[in-house]
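so i finally got all the pieces together for this one. its two components total, 636 residues if u count the protein bits. some of the lines might not be protein, just check the labels. i wanna see the whole assembly predicted at once instead of chain by chain like last time, that was a mess tbh
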Amino acid sequence: MATEVQRKPSWRQRHDLLAVFASRLGYGLITLFIVTIIVFWATQALPGNAASAILGTHATPALVKETENQLHLNRSVFSQYWAWLSGILQGNFGHSLTNGSSVWALIKPRLINSAILVVLAAFFGSIIGIPLAIYAALHKDKLFDRVMAVITLSISAIPDFVVAVLLVTIFATVVWKVLPAVSVVPVGVYAWSTPRLLVLPVATLSLVIVPYIYRMTRAALIDAFESEYVELARLKGLRPLRVSVVHALPNALAPVIQVSGLNFIYLAGGIVLVEYIFNFPGIGQGLVNAVSDRDVPTIQFIVLSLATFYIVINILADVAVLVVTPRRRYARSAPA
Amino acid sequence: MTTTGIAPPAPAVRARRKAGRFRQTIRTGRGKVGLAFVLFVVLVAAIGPFVTPSPPDSTVGTVFGPPSGQFWLGTDTLGRSVLSRVLDGGWVLLVMALAATIIGVGLGAIVGMSAAYFRGVIDTVLMRAVDVLLAFPQIVLVLLLISVVGPKLWLIVLAVAFSHLPAVARVIRSASIDVTERDFIASDEAIALSRTRILFAEVLPNVTSPLMVELGLRLAWSTAVIAGLNLLGFGQAPPAPGWGEMIYENISGISVNPWGVLAPALIIAILTIGVNTLTDAFARVSLGSDRAPLEMEQLV
């Protein structure tokens, strides 16, 4: 922003990070509010009697009545929504329709298990993908780079569940029987009590995200390497290592942070199928079970947690990008 | 390309250039490999139902029997021939994936082009709506919709189509923005061309490359998501064969006859790899990029 006159910096400019953070947080909260409306509308307010849909063939008039009361179906849509939302704001997520216990108590261990899965996958995906990308970017269009382009394209094209099935076949059943195929962790138990069960799900998810990390990091680094300031650094006669680490890398950090954020978001969807195949007791498997059983409060809670996770990661990634690239703080006056 | 005598030159040139892009794509190594993979799977799905060695729905052998001379891929959870079920189980998935992709990319393109062309309030509202929808992982959005209406096949198609909409809208919006600022759009407005006409006859032909890339990427996604839903038990009612459903049925016997799971999984992977490779070849030819920026927008 080349302004014609030197003006006194506004509050927004002096507290740039804080201002951006506040505005992102505001937009995040608005998004979350609309998400609650969508979730509520999709699960409870759609035409058709949700109570008899839930009860299916077991529906007797008395049971329908009871379920209607539990879901507040006998009230107006607005007051139903309000009752539901205020319950959630007070930390009351309702009771599971399948066994009557509190949704929070049922889902909390699953949340933690899934979080472990996602964090480990993101960690291993990054420590595999980023070094490969740095090497490929330094040797652009050489053999390694071209071979990796084909490999990453193929891996990213394979659906997650196929990767899972292949890994099970190779490591757990047919070729070697070194690892357990499906976990036997009962629901409500934490995954770290038997780390061996984490190996294959984590391997699947890491493998699935490596291509994304690799390609984004490589593209960002190549952009930086081809920029004028790196050219200048080279012409000054600086050593190649110094040029790449001190000059190019800091400018490639922003896209890499964005990719890491995207990976968490991608994993939030990826866990659904992978957890199901490995019978891993996380929220992905919980969601599938809840959808099969039409356990509305559980579906609502899991979908809301995943959406909240998405919004929080987005805000954190945006802010982290601004922390590492000060010049972007001014370029983006309107929240994108 | 046969164009009638007095057609304006511009569309003819455009059509010729488009044909050139496809031909160029097929000439690249990636293009050939991708096309071969896709054709293989389409042929299996289309001809397969007529050449099944045994009826796909009837029990003909032991449960989870290993591959043999009679059953090349062994038998499944009910002693049915895995090969027959693979041959008969593809077309429903392919039709559903194609329908979901065309609907989703079509609606997404309309939303994206409208946002780019109308700007202002319409743009803001549409793109905020897109932001909100992106807060749901795609498969979660579909599961949410299925949870109420039940796993009907038409609902799966519509839900998957709908789940493509926000990401496609974003990509097409950013591709259309440059176009809407060009002089010929201003001249169209000067001669009071209708807005629908401007969108479909003037903006659309100028974003075909990103649109084709989106179609390819989304087709692969649709296949994976629909097969994934079938694998979770939300699909055709038994005993209908389906590649996703077969994984669901046979996963318990993976250590006895892995082919009941592997065969459908591998053929789905051949299809998605083929579609992605072909799309990648097309993107390199027509957009001259290695697709990284597009992919970024697709995921964001």
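DSSP finds 13 helices and no strands in chain B.
Chain B touches chain A through 50 residues (CB under 8 Å).
anyway lmk what u think
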